[in-house]
Specification:
2 domains, single chain, seven-stranded mixed sheet, Rossmann fold, VC0802-like, 375 residues, binds S-adenosylmethionine, 11 helices, alpha/beta
């Protein structure tokens, strides 16, 4: 560390994890949020910065699934070497002796091949060098990755996955994670400056995310994070970071679904998120969907698909009805549709561009299909 710099200012290697296929979209968000030199890599985006950047990433980024901070990196050709080098890590600079941790390890193409034994070595280094206890149920997680004999040790600064914004109680039948919903919105060019409508809104993920973006609300404003239990944490600096001012918006956001329970759930999710005033949720089927008043915007929809719910033949009819309604009533709007089946997307008859990459979701691969402005 440079003289005069503190542990808090030090440049750390920070890794923001993303669903495979959406790294470039997350990178775009990270760049726009003013983080230094973001680089997309398989599985996420890497940046460098001090601990305040770690806190800000957790608080503000909508698309990242977790924020990992690299603690150490060294070669380890055999267990004794891992043991020795793990003991030299500056554990006191990262962890607190009074906060229990759990250690998870993975080994790939390495002489050390037993992940459980590797985790034990690191656990022992932490307990014996720092005095922190190790327990399987601890909220704070240390991740050890040994790949090609290179050992990387990271701390998970997020804790619970970041799609858990802290205000969603109703999750519905097949919800999209908020992180994924926001990345798809971004992929459709949404930046909080137009209305968004979801005619099969379920728990309201697209509508609430879009409304929060327009209202300038940070996604992590209502939850806690694992970094609050790290040695580097500073309550005052964290509180200052959280005082962002919400934006005024006169945009409206619309969600509908034929399921009454989904609509009730979406309304209470929007209330807890503090965006109920700009969200309109109503119960009706797709065939009754009308174009809202006001300038055109973006229809974002994630209809039922694949093996998860319902029967395929019925689904073709449903997608056909969706396409027909949007064709007839939504001229001037754009459409983003998320589904696992190309045939279902085509059944809408909407003029889609080639779809985005396949994204793993609930055991299936889903893709985003986008139209330009509908004629
Ligand atoms: C995959 S879920 C949407 C999940 C949502 N994106 C979320 O994050 O919670 C599909 C939704 O379509 C709704 N749905 C199915 N058929 C419909 C129809 N004909 N009209 C309106 N909604 C319908 C279901 O009730 C369900 O909530």
């Amino acid at each position: 560390m440079m003289p005069g710099t503190t542990q808090r200012d030090r440049k750390l290697e920070i890794f923001l994890t993303a669903p495979p296929g959406l790294e470039a979209i997350l990178c775009d968000e990270v760049r726009e949020a003013g983080f230094e030199a973001p680089e997309p890599t398989p599985g996420g985006v890497s940046i460098r910065g001090g601990w305040p950047e770690v806190w800000r990433a957790n608080l503000c980024l909508r698309g990242a699934s977790r924020v990992l901070v690299r603690v150490a990196e060294f070669r380890a050709m055999h267990p004794a070497q891992l043991d020795k080098r793990a003991r030299k890590v500056d554990w006191a600079g990262v962890l607190r002796a009074d906060v229990p941790v759990r250690v998870e390890a993975s080994c790939t193409r390495s002489k050390i091949y037993h992940a459980g034994a590797a985790a034990q070595r690191v656990e022992r280094a932490i307990t014996e060098e720092l005095g922190a206890s190790v327990s399987k149920g601890a909220a704070l997680r240390i991740m050890v990755r040994i790949e090609d004999d290179l050992c990387t040790i990271s701390v998970d600064s997020s804790g619970e996955l970041l799609h858990r914004r802290g205000h969603k109680q109703f999750v519905g039948k097949a919800p999209l994670r908020e992180t994924l919903a926001s990345l798809f919105l971004r992929q459709c060019g949404y930046r909080g400056k137009e209305s968004v409508l979801d005619p099969m809104c379920g728990s309201g993920s697209f509508v609430i995310e879009a409304a929060e973006i327009a209202a300038g609300l940070c996604p992590g404003r209502g939850r806690s994070f694992a970094f609050e239990k790290l040695a580097s944490f500073n309550t005052q600096a964290w509180q200052q970071l959280q005082t962002t001012l919400p934006l005024e918006t006169d945009l409206a956001f619309y969600g509908s679904d034929r399921d009454a329970g989904a609509i009730q759930g979406a309304i209470s999710n929007a209330e807890r998120a503090g965006v109920a005033k700009i969200c309109n949720f109503s119960q009706f089927a797709i065939s009754d969907l009308q174009r809202p008043e006001g300038p055109p915007g973006l229809v974002m929809v994630n209809p039922p698909y694949g093996s998860r719910i319902g029967n395929k033949k019925l689904l073709f009819g449903l997608y056909g009805a969706l396409g027909k309604t949007l064709h007839a009533r939504f001229s001037g709007w754009r459409v983003g549709l998320v589904t696992s089946e190309a045939g279902l997307a085509r059944a809408t008859g909407l003029p889609f561009a080639p779809p985005g990459p396949p994204i793993p979701h609930g055991g299936l691969k889903i893709r985003l299909w986008q139209t330009g402005i509908l004629p």
